[in-house]
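User: Cupin, Tateyamaria omphalii:
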Amino acid sequence: MTPAEMEPRIVRYGDLMPCKTAFIDAHTPGSDQKENFTIIGGGVSESPDQHVHISIPHGFNIGAAGQPPKCRNSLHSHRTAEVFFVLSGRWRFFWGRWGDAGEVVLEEGDIINIPTGIFRGFENIGTDYGMIMAILGGDDAGGGVIWAPQVIEEAGAHGLVLGDNGSLYDSKKGEALPDGVRPMPLLTEEELKGFPEMSPMQVVGMGVRRYWDMVCLAKDAPCKVIGETGIIRDKPGFEVDLVTRSCASDEMHAHDKPSVLMPVKGHWKVTWDGGSTTLAPGDTMSLPEDLPHAVVPSMTGEAALYHIVGTDDPAGPTWTG
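Assistant: Predicted structure for Cupin:
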């Protein structure tokens, strides 16, 4: 592939296009300043304003959330895997029906694999604008977001209504539900029993890994972070590796499925049959299947990137603790 052919598969951090109306809590105080980014795949946005950077199916979705300090994402759940790593800032992740079953604080480079079927939320507790990058299982990301009932109720008080067609309607703009579309029904008490209250030991012990621990494990070979043999043992429809300077190789190789490169630290030179480019933290690059390529740091200093590749495992519910 020529550089011109590859360019549409590269999304630079500075070119990311945010959506501030992506979800039902877009007007809710405390959540109304967040920005949602859909980088690869359709994502789970409820707004037609959401820009999709790369629509090529990968078997998983890549997105991001950018938030100023004290801004939070409301309690929700997914039917497929949701994995986050911290690109910048300091973040508190919390979970449970009311968000009080447990919490954990993540720093730059840390990763969390959140169990399917539990309500979760997150907030920027740092002092500057922060960004977390997300991997969602499946090409359709499980069909959307499942909101805790109180999130939908509070949003209604601020003018936003979610239709049962998965679309948002803003009464502040004079919008109303179209004929034949009803408000998204709230989960019943019986349905809520299917969303477990998992302990910190379950979520943190099984699903959180610290950046510097993974760096230590990636001395001679990439650290298998998520996968059947990973330090997080799960099969969510994709695998995640952490590659560092000490284990990077200039040997050309290829994958039988599309793969994605996401630098966390340092600059990385990607070479393929037909060209090369350099990636920086926050950039995302999609590599086609069966394309020989090599990835090595291009400058001195700390260097690490996450590598994601799809698998044949189903993208439905995965581990539940």
